[in-house]
């Protein structure tokens, strides 16, 4: 099954007329210039006929190629418009740079051709063809380069660079396993308040304090106030997105598409639990009892 293309009849007629005019002018001028520089090739009375036939043949060839030229032009215009719409000012700059670069290539080609050929019609035809080809290639190349740079920036902006341990996870010993198994684990500084307000037991607070005190997890400052459990959960999700952190959520929480469920981690072994209980606190003299302070168990809350 062949692909069907839709053509604007008026544009196609105008394009065909333009191609006929260009073909006739280029074909006739090129042969006429050839006879000017090489007058002895044919008899003088035959020259007008050959010039007219050459112009008519090239005009006919281009006229029959109107639809391919239409598709080519429409494709290039659509690509350029898409790049400009996507990249904005950078897209316009890429097209402008492509046209300028193509002009530089044309100057170089014209000097080279002029060294070996003095027929100006041939040089003009070569310059036009080279400019069209190199303009398309350079515009595409610059646009592709800018597109790749933008895609890299977007990909880097969307990369998750750490983990945010949810306060609800601290009711389970597996939160300890998750924190030790992963790198760059953060905890919202409101977790202490949330555990105190929303039914967190002493063991959960002890786990959080052990993780922070031993440098396994860092506290991240969050200045947003909350009054209910749901508000705190939304605060944690927003914080994870803002800091580009993957959310370590409880087993029954499936709201984070790129989050990590606590089900992936096994219960911590007894040696780990003992190390948390017996490890000396390097800043025990600075321990703060209130959950709303800027330091808990001697750890400075980070704000980054």
Brief rundown of the structure:
Helix content is 61%, strand content 7%. The chain has 304 residues and is α/β, with parallel strands linked by helices. Helix 1 packs across helix 5, helix 3 packs across helix 4 and helix 3 runs parallel beside helix 5.
Describe the structure in your own words.
α4 (89-116) packs antiparallel against α5 (120-158). β1, α6 (174-181) and β2 form a beta-alpha-beta unit. The chain contains ten helices and seven strands. The strands form two sheets. Strands 3-2-1-4-5 form a five-stranded parallel beta sheet, sandwiched between helices. By secondary structure, the protein is α/β, with parallel strands linked by helices. The longest helix is centred in the middle third of the chain and has 39 residues, at 120-158. Mean pLDDT is 75; it is low at 152-158 and 279-304. The chain is rod-shaped, with a radius of gyration of 36 Å.
Computed over alpha carbons, the radius of gyration is: 36 Å
Q: Helix proportion of residues, in percent?
A: 55-70%
Report low-confidence residues grouped into runs of 5 or more.
152-158, 279-304
Cα separation of the termini:
58 Å
Beta-sheet strand percentage?
5-15%
Q: What global shape is seen?
A: rod-shaped
Major sheet details: 5 strands, parallel
| Lateral strand order in the biggest sheet | 3-2-1-4-5
What class do helices, strands and sheet pairing give? Answer: alpha/beta
Secondary-structure element order, N to C: HHHHHEHEHHEHEEHEE
